[in-house]
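User: Hi! I'm working on a homework problem where we have to compare a predicted structure to a textbook description. Could you give me the structure for the chain below?
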Amino acid sequence: MPPRWPREPDRKTDPEYRRLDDLINFAIHVGVYTATNSGLWFVHNLKSAEWPWLLWVNGIWFGILALHFVYIKAIADYTTIKT
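Assistant: Happy to help. Predicted structure tokens:
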């Protein structure tokens, strides 16, 4: 059974829902990062290919994920917006 939100979800006026939505979005990004990079490293090791750009892709993408996490935890303002 999927989790239920106790009220009608509204991203504009519900700060708890906005925070949850941002965390779910971050989790999806982490999953895509993990799947893509593990696949790239698997092919890299399987074919003994010379991919000097692979470390740069991993590092830059990880940096973007870290900034996304900092935004969610420290910068984002989840106060109620009055309409």
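For your comparison, note the following. The two ends are 33 Å apart (CA to CA). Residues 34-76 form one domain. Good luck with the assignment!
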